[in-house]
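PROTEIN DESIGN WORKSHEET
SECTION A - STRUCTURE
LENGTH: 220
TOKENS:
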């Protein structure tokens, strides 16, 4: 076990870690494009199921949420293991979450609403799960735009505060998933449990930091 952990730590410190994380985030898109090719050019009716648009929406939405959750896992995992090198891919992984969310939204806009702004606005106002999803996307857009080194220098301490909105985006994503399901809630509930665990860990570390700070001030 210890040898395996040492190998992981060594890999994280290598020059291959960042490219491997990038490729790992790209894999779901490649696999989905292969299925699109099979459905469109090879006439494989099973590649995207009976409702290809719904399949594409579901796959890209779930990929966006999954990669977003991986982003949220990085800091707790780093604190628990001491693998500080994980932090170098956090922004990149977060941007990949936005890319999949953008693909998810684009499929909805192009195929569901045929690019009609009035129909899209009407959907956002009348259907609460669309409103939740759009809210999450807007937050991810803000986070993606402010993920550059230039924006970090510009915002300074406010950058970290702004990027705590990633938790709000994750909540909006899970709510979007739950409200969008008409009957079977088993899958979105699993995402909700995962999110609750991540938020619980976040609260734990925040309370521990506050306690430690209070002790240091008392000792001083």
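SECTION B - SEQUENCE
RESIDUE ASSIGNMENT:
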């Amino acid at each position: 076990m210890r040898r395996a952990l040492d190998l992981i730590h060594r890999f994280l410190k290598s020059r291959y870690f960042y490219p491997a994380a990038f490729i790992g985030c790209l894999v779901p898109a490649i696999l989905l494009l292969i299925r699109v090719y099979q459905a469109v050019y090879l006439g494989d009716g099973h590649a995207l199921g009976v409702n290809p648009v719904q399949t594409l929406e579901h796959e890209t939405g779930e990929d966006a949420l999954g990669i977003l959750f991986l982003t949220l896992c990085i800091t707790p995992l780093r604190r628990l293991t001491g693998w500080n090198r994980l932090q170098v891919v956090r922004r990149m992984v977060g941007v990949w979450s936005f890319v999949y969310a953008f693909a998810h939204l684009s499929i909805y806009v192009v195929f569901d609403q045929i690019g009609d702004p009035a129909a899209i606005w009407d959907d956002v106002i009348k259907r609460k799960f669309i409103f939740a999803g759009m809210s999450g996307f807007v937050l991810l857009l803000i986070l993606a735009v402010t993920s550059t080194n230039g924006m970090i220098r510009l915002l300074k301490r406010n950058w970290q505060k702004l990027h705590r909105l990633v938790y709000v985006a994750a909540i909006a994503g899970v709510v979007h998933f739950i409200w969008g399901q008409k009957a079977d809630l088993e899958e979105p509930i699993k995402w909700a449990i995962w999110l609750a665990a991540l938020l619980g860990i976040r609260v734990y570390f925040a309370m521990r930091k506050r306690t430690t700070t209070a002790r240091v001030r008392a000792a001083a």
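SECTION C - NOTES
The CA atoms of residues 139 and 169 lie 6 Å apart.
The chain has ten helices and no strands.
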